[in-house]
Amino acid sequence: MEPFSDMGKFLIIIGIMLVLFGGLITLAGKIPFIGRLPGDIIIQKKNFTFYFPLATSILLSIILSLLFWLVGKR
Asked: What is the pLDDT of residues 42-55, one digit of tens each?
């Protein structure tokens, strides 16, 4: 019976993470600086727009790395 218990806990954690990620995506458009940092690349032509959020990606990577480091430290 123990493997099913572990799988249940795993599914609950995945579900909570999906809900949190969905909420983050929903609220991301309301955060003013996300996607508009200096270093984000935006090229606009007549029928073409290229957007690469380089600085935003680096900032997000640093924040997540620190978060996972703190959680893994326990």
From this structure: 899 999 999 888 98
